[in-house]
Design goal:
Elements lengths: L1 H13 L12 E7 L6 H20 L8 E7 L4 H13 L5 E2 L4 H14 L3 E2 L16 E2 L5 H14 L4 E6 L4 H13 L3 E6 L5 H11 L2 E5 L2 H8 L12 E4 L5 H7 L4 E6 L10 H12 L8 H20 L5 H9 L2 E2 L8 E2 L11 E5 L8
Parallel strand pairs: 1-2, 1-3, 3-4, 4-5, 6-7, 6-8, 8-9, 9-10
Antiparallel strand pairs: 10-13, 11-12
Helix pairs in contact: 1-12, 2-11, 3-4, 5-6, 11-12
């Protein structure tokens, strides 16, 4: 077994040459997010959560006697800018690329990080391409799109829903395809209603006549356009709404008040869970003055960043990307704040956690 693990680890570490760090230099963690443009709202929550993990570490004396720094570069949602940012992060000594947001961005992030020898940790995407056997530098803390889609379809079947309108804007085509396959496999008739991200309200108005339930798969452009329309825009949607988003869940909850909303999530509810991870997250948000971070996106950023910090602490070295890879692969089956994780040289996808949540018409999360 030891020889097999060495064979698995060696090629990945060889692709990650160390950049020398002077003694006592900060430990730099990097991310490229759309801090401008329509993706800002979600990206800002992710960044706020990641910062909480960094502030928590520094308030406790840092990492191995060194300060932790989070370097966030703005890519404006552009894949080419993201690739340029990844190169800049590597040049500035980052040990990791954290928290890409969305299917297209995470696909670009995986390619760019592989080219410069950085591990990618915590993509906010269940795209199966990130889980391909050859993609050995990506570490995910969530299941793939197919698992979430099956969970959502199963719940609709329990509720005796026979036909749904699938409203999708093309922002995450792999996820949209997974949703359609899962719904059809559950025996549910799917009426696909393509959404124009520039004019989403026009399609939403058709959904109430098409089916008794609607499944939403909307990207930041559509959500931004909807946020600028009158509340009556969504009033005509079917009473039963379901969504399986990798991004923008908090924003959809805000806009769809007045409708019951079922959703899948790959994280515990930051408003309701009693896990130590979530309690610490809430306390850190209060301690460091960032209550707006307490969202699903913020918790994801916090978890991904905290894992890197704690893995490096356990590995007792934080000088190169290869140190982080070794530390993550040595994590094993071990919870982080009560959240179960399993990472080994053979296992790069640390969590299969997925559950259904419900937010009532009053906007209160029921579970």
């Amino acid at each position: 077994m030891l020889r097999r693990r060495a064979a698995l680890v060696a090629p990945l570490l060889a692709a990650m040459p160390a950049l020398g760090q002077p003694a006592g230099a900060p430990v730099v963690l990097g991310q490229s997010l759309p801090m401008t443009g329509t993706g800002f709202t979600t990206a800002n929550r992710v960044r706020a959560g990641a910062l909480l993990a960094v502030e928590r570490a520094n308030a406790g004396g840092g990492l191995l006697g060194r300060r932790v720094e989070l370097l966030t570069l703005d890519d404006g949602g552009d894949a080419r800018r993201l690739a340029d940012n990844v190169r800049r992060l590597r040049e500035q000594g980052a040990l990791v690329l954290l928290n890409c947001v969305g299917e297209q961005a995470c696909h670009a992030a995986a390619q760019a990080s592989a080219q410069v020898g950085l591990p990618l940790v915590g993509p906010f995407s269940g795209d199966a391409r990130l889980r391909a056997p050859a993609v050995r530098h990506v570490f995910t803390l969530r299941p793939d799109d197919a698992r979430e889609a099956r969970l959502l379809a199963g719940q609709l079947r329990v509720l005796s829903v026979a036909q749904v309108a699938l409203l999708a804007d093309g922002h995450e085509p792999v996820r949209e395809a997974a949703l359609a396959r899962a719904l059809q496999a559950a025996g549910i008739t799917v009426l696909r209603l393509p959404v124009d991200p520039a004019r989403p309200a026009a399609t939403l108005a058709q959904a109430s006549d098409a089916a008794g339930a609607a499944v939403l798969s909307l990207g930041p452009d559509s959500l931004e356009a909807l946020s600028q329309t009158a509340p009556t825009t969504v009033a005509g949607l079917p009473a039963m709404l379901m969504t399986a988003p990798s991004t923008g869940l908090t924003e959809q909850m805000r806009m769809l008040r007045g409708h019951g909303l079922g959703f899948t999530t790959v994280l515990p509810n930051p408003e309701a869970s009693q896990l130590p991870l979530v309690r610490d997250f809430g306390r850190d948000a209060e301690r460091f003055g960032s209550p707006d971070a307490v969202t699903f996106e913020g918790l994801g950023g916090y978890l991904h960043t905290l894992l890197c910090i704690e893995a490096l602490r356990r590995g007792r070295s934080a000088d190169s990307p290869a140190d982080l890879v070794r530390a993550l692969q040595a994590w094993g089956r071990r919870p982080l704040g009560g959240f179960d994780l399993n990472l080994t040289p053979e296992q790069r996808h640390g969590s299969d956690f997925a559950e259904l949540g419900v937010r009532g018409r009053d906007g209160v999360a029921r579970r």
